[in-house]
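Entry 14: structure prediction run for CENP-V/GFA domain-containing protein. Input pasted below.
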Amino acid sequence: MNLDRRTANVQYPMVHSMSASSPSQSYQASCHCGLIRYTVVLSPPLHDMQSWVVECNCSICARNGYLNVYVQNQCIQFQTVGLDSNLVEKYRFGKQRVQHYFCSRCGSSLMAESIEPGFYEGVKALNVRMFQGVDLNNLQRRQIDGRSL
Ligand SMILES: [Zn+2]
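Run finished. Output C-alpha cells:
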C-alpha cells in the first residue's frame, strides 16, 4: 500500500454527500475571530483512508493556502451568519465562475463555490484550515491543477 500522503494527483475532486450507509463525522469550523461559524458532516470522515483534501495551484489557492474538501450544501449548517451576510466578503476573478468567501473582520479564507449553473452546482469547497481539532499534517493530500482550468 502506498502511504505517501503528498504525491497523488487527481483531476476531479471527490464530493462528500450525506450518506446514511457509510461512516460520517461532524466538524466544527470557524474563521479566526469566530464571527463565522458552521458545522459540517463529512462522509467519509477526514481521517478515513478513503478521504483526502485538495491542494490546488490556482492563483488564489496558492496565495491563501487553501486545503479543500468538496461537500454538498446540505452537509453544512451555518451557526452565526450565512454567506449572504454583509459580514462575509465575496471575491471573484478571472472567468467569474467561482466565488470566494472570507471573513470581513479577520480575513480568514472560508470557502468557495461555483456560481455558474451546471458547474459543481450545490457544492462548496471548504477550507479545512478552518476546522477545529483537525491535525492537518495527518490528512491525505492530493494536488489538482486548478491553474489550467
Ligand atoms: Zn473572522
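Notes: Residues 31-33, 35-36, 103, 105-106, 108 surround zinc ion (CB under 6 Å). Will compare against the previous run tomorrow.
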